[in-house]
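To: structure subgroup
Subject: Chain for Friday's discussion

All,

I'm putting the inputs and outputs inline so they're searchable in the archive.
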Amino acid sequence: MNSALQPQIQHLTCAHPGGLHKIAYREWFDASTGPKEAARVVVCVHGLTRRATDFDTLARTMAGRGWRVVCPDMIGRGDSDWVSQPMLYAVPQYVADCVTLVARLGVESVDWVGTSMGGLIGMTYAALSGNPIRRMVLNDIGPKLEWAGLSTIAAYVGSVPVFTEYAEAASWLRGRMGGFGPHDETGWEQLIRPYFKVLPDGGFTPHYDPAIAIPFKALAQGDESGGKSGGEPGGNSEAFSMWPLWDAISSNTLVLRGSLSELLSIETCEGMKVRGPKARVIEIAGVGHAPSLIAPEQTDPILEFFSEQ
């Protein structure tokens, strides 16, 4: 791995109903050859409250192989714009932004890595006729979401406390990241430091717009009839089922599942093996939701999968 490789920070103007917004993205490539000569192009999209820097280890390794890697901050996160209409923080707008992003890249096909929300975006994009996704990695996400995992996320998303000291902020976040599994201090720093923005008074607070929680919690609180969903007793167990979407996908697909995941069940993975793109599934031991894609045992299968013809 070439630790000297660093990303270029780019910005892209996208459209939403009633206006425009900018998204920022980190673009990695071998400077000796340039992005246009890359052997392949990979788009990596983060989870609900995360950002593009989560993929720095994976992206640096890919760029060292001569690949071009693009990692956006989705709207409402990181260095991208916030929007005034909270219900735009949802998959349809995210997909539209990614379509614009791929058009900017000027390529006919891309490979995709999507963690959690990024995987939902990828599945929706890959189900569209004429989509450019050649191979897709879904990181602890699938066409059916379990109520236990959704309720866990709903309990913390939108919580944006302010801390006076970075150490206090880091300790708070680290306590919420048990599902990511064990890391060394370098790994924790990659996951934690970019999560916080520095306020004018020197304080620290999470990077994202708290309003991203509004559409998510509306989904997690129940279906349109008011019933609870995702398999909660007495609810509609199919409210979070996206199997028809899955069945429309033809891209070669690899699924990584944290063995302790509350969001992606073993049963759903079994279905993903035999329906739609008939995915391969790899289980990551000792990890919940979601594998951080930093350790070699998590990144090597992705590298091998994308290297196949």
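Points worth raising on Friday:
Residues 8-154+241-307 form a domain with the Rossmann fold fold (CATH 3.40.50.1820).
The CA atoms of residues 22 and 81 lie 6 Å apart.

D.
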